[in-house]
Amino acid sequence: MVKHQPLQVYERQLCLSCLTGIYGCRWKRYQRSHDDTTIWESTWFFLLCCSFFLLLVWSYFWWEAQNDYNEFNWLLYNRSGEWSDGILPILISTVVCFTYTAFLMVLALCHIALGQQLNLYWLHKIGVLAVFIATITGVVSIDNLWRNEWDIVLISLQFTGPFLHIVALAAVTALGWLVAGLVVRGERSRFQMGLLLLYLLVLLALYLAPLTITSPCLMDRSSLQPRPTVTGRRGSPMLAPENTLMSFNKALQHGVSALEADVAISLEGVPFLMRDRTLKRTTDVGRLFPERQADDASLFNWTELRSLNSGLWFLKEDPFGTVSSMTTRERNRVGNQSVCSLAELLRLALRANCSVIFSLRRPPLQHPRHHFWINDTLRTVQKSRIPLSKVMWTPDSEREKVQREAPQLQQTSQEKLPMLQLQQRGITALTLHYSQAQDPDIRQFLKRNVSLNVYTVNEPWLFSVLWCSGVSSVSSEAPHILRKVPFPIWTMSPEGYCLIWIAADLVSFAVIVGTFLYQNYHVIRWKASGMRSYNPEQIMLSAVVRRPSRNVNIMKEKLIFSEVNSDVGSTDELSLYTENGYDRYTHGTLGQSDHF
After folding, report:
1. Counting runs of H as helices and runs of E as strands, what totals does the chain give?
2. Were both Cys, which of 217, 258, 368, 552 would link to 231 (CB 3.0–4.6 Å)?
């Protein structure tokens, strides 16, 4: 007669089952293991980490690129010839992929924290690999199609850098718990020492990162320049069709100080407003002149241009998602917009007492006004009776001739030139893309009394950075948004930021030291107590011992046999199991039952 004593009484562990089940489809207790993760599975975990951080950068890029979403769609239109919202599918796929990858990362870190073996399910492996390849493809495609937009990441770090540093420091500090668990609880190995060294190097880099952070917003509030004036770039194209009278009126209603437009020359020499080379996107040319949709807009005479509708496309495409907020009266006004001439824009600016800046596109070579485009434009400006000092003249062609005939015009360059060349050409103003407006250049322009207008600024964060940099004017497609920014979003004195930096580093260091001491204290206490205990998850129907290198037989069924009324087996047998790697078991948990 013997008495059978089960080695372990199992308890339900629903959370752990869900954790291992979702990550590796290991829903049963016997499928889980505390063995070291294999090299193959470690490789997949590394690929998961790469996918996560790559998607993090990709998501950050598109979040900051919101300032130029319209520019991206316009770029796609010029390549494909069809207008579509290319941003929406990119954003949806980015959110889905990032959420999926972040979820798997959380599950993997939980596995590590609980000492579970990583074993990513094959379906997840396919998903992670697909996400990684898709993200790499997206990065390469954007680099080929929209390479200049990467500059906005560097500019945005001037605004978000101090805050991203705090977030990164908090995340790495939290990871200290996992690193301490791996280093303190396990046996010392080269991998663990290498992991600890890597962690300390990353931590040291974060502690010293503020030395490389520069931002114009780190300044004394007393040295802040006056608020930059806002120019309506093509009017207010988020609220009305671009380059139409309604769009410019909307911009004036939101307090712009200048109006900016794109000018082309009609067949008989009438300057009119049109951004695209063709009329296909912003007019109903396909209805009135279907065979001429691909023709250059300059090859139409003014009568033909005036007969086109310039508002129906806006109601149909809704490029900024603002049509639904319009009243019925506003929609009717939009539907009745026509192609606007430069003379109409100048008359509107004269009544509103605001400045005008325009980009002039030269007609094609076969155009009858190809050699007279500057004369046609200058004559229109002079006939409008607007003060010439209110007009910012940007064309470089025949600039000397224009200066002689209209010396009051404000000569403006769209090219970043050395100060000596600006002075030689008589240029007193610049209009540049925000990526070309660097802090040293801005200070130099201010010192030499050269006014600087920066485009395209639609987001409050970019407006704040340029404001702190000292820019005097910005061109925006969203004057109604910038109107709500009376002050920079944030400014901070360098001394205040230095104090926050040091305090954050000290808190992080104290938390990490405390974490390592706490974990090490429990291990030392466990070893000093002489207690031997088992982790219930180590006991599985088909489990192997903790270290696969140990030559211990696989246990198919674990029973302790002892004779009735005999004290044999308790301590000695448990010591035997402890020597074979099972160090998480207590004799007190044995359940007893007599069998005959």
Report:
1. 21, 11
2. 258
H or E segment and range at residue 271: strand 271-273
Mean pLDDT of 447-452: 89
Q: What is the pLDDT of residue 5?
A: 53
Instruction: Evaluate whether 263 touches 273 at the Cβ level (below 8 Å).
Output: yes
Task: Quote the distance between the C-alpha of residue 484 and its chain's center.
Answer: 23
DSSP type of residue 413: E
At 58, list the tokens.
């990709």
What pLDDT is recorded for position 101? 97
Residue-wise pLDDT for 508-531, tens only, equals 999 999 998 887 776 666 555 554
Q: Which of 264, 301, 261, 296 is nearest to 277 (CA)?
A: 296
Q: How many Cβ atoms are within 10 Å of 579's Cβ, its own excluded?
A: 11
CA-to-CA distance for 176 and 532, rounded, in angstroms?
Answer: 27
In b/e form, how buried is each residue of 73-94, taking b as 16+ CB within 10 angstroms?
Answer: bbebbeeeeebebebeebeeeb
User: 371-398: string of b/e by CB count within 10 Å (b at 16+)?
Assistant: eebbebbbebbeebebebebbbbbbeee
* pLDDT of the residue at 561: 40
Q: What is the pLDDT of residue 11?
A: 58
Helix H or strand E segment including 102: helix 87-114
Rounded to 5 degrees, φ, ψ at 204 are -65, -40
Quickly list DSSP for 453-485.
Answer: EEE---SHHHHHHHHHHT--EEEES-HHHHTT-
DSSP state of 341: B
CA 26 – CA 32 distance, rounded (Å): 6
pLDDT in tens, 201-220: 999 999 999 999 999 999 99
Separation between Cα atoms, residue 464 and residue 233, nearest integer Å: 18
Q: Quote the tokens at residue 181.
A: 């668990």
pLDDT at 117 over 60: yes
Query: Which long-range contacts does 187-192 make (Cβ < 8 Å, 24+ apart)?
Result: none
CA-CA-CA-CA dihedral for 549, 551, 557, 562, to nearest 10: -130
* Residues 311 and 245 sit within 8 Å (Cβ to Cβ): no
